[in-house]
Write a structure and sequence with these properties.
The chain has 13 helices and eleven strands. By secondary structure, the chain is of the alpha/beta class. Helix 3 packs antiparallel against helix 4 and helix 3 runs parallel beside helix 13. The longest helix has 30 residues. It binds pseudouridine-5'-monophosphate and manganese (II) ion (MN). The site of pseudouridine-5'-monophosphate has 19 residues, from helix 2, helix 6, helix 8 and helix 12.
Length: 309
Amino acid sequence: MTHPALRLTDEVAEALAAGTPVVALESTIISHGMPYPQNVAMATEVEGIVREHGAVPATIAVLGGVPRIGLNGGDLELLASDPAVVKVSVRDLPSVIARGGHGATTVAATMRLAALAGIRVFVTGGLGGVHRGAATTFDISADLTELSTTPVAVVSAGVKSILDIGLTLERLETLGVPVLVDGADEFPAFYSRSSGFSAPLRADGPDEIARTMDAAWSLGLTCGLVVAHPIPAADEIPAAEIDAVIEQALADLGERGIGGRDATPYLLGRIVELTDGASLTTNIALVRENARVGAEIAVSYAALSRARP
Ligand code: PSU
Ligand code: MN
């Protein structure tokens, strides 16, 4: 039974009832992660890629106070362009619902709503994590705590080096979250395949990833899984090149005294500005790739679930 507070599209509800593959997609990446109109074009295209690979896309957001699982073109346009859309992590969900507002959900909030709807696979670009300097700011994304409590596999291209990648991996280890790198031995750094950190765990392809999800949840683990899929080599920006840009963006953040919920959106926007849009092209390329991979994982996982006695 679906949670009564959620509104699902008929298509998503039917797919879930039939046990056919569904892929959740987040909305902070649309409203606060990319500029208009590339954001709405990306959101629409990614839904198409999920469909082409055999799954039903369910973009998740809160609209007029209602948590929505599956959106239409008008909803995506609103999320992409309306300045009244706030960034909603888990702690913000109760308020945006009570106030009847519009909210773009982060990885953490999207995971929570996806799990309530019964969706097990979620595709995004990059995860939140432990920010650089967290030893003094305490800035650690709620994405990590949500991964420790909510059984959804999150497909990303790793984490940007706006974060402290090493500390993010340490935190995930402490929280008991399996971190799988798809087809590689190194954890990827979003724009580049290389981060300098080895893969905590390796998995090769959608069937093995689906079996790992199934093994985790059949054991009664209640956590999510990180599935890091490295950006294709043809699309990557070399680490040395993007790191200089990220250092500049971090310096600008510090100078402006921006923190809290505004830190990540500021850094994402500043990186696009500093690269004259080149980072945006790369970001869109890796989200496309993740959409394909996520759909394939959802197809494999649905087949496993159907085969279970
Ligand atoms: N990292 C990215 N792109 C993004 C985000 C993070 O490379 O779009 C977004 C995601 O929605 C993520 C959120 O859940 O930022 C994390 O925000 P915070 O650091 O405030 O928890
Ligand atoms: Mn934060």
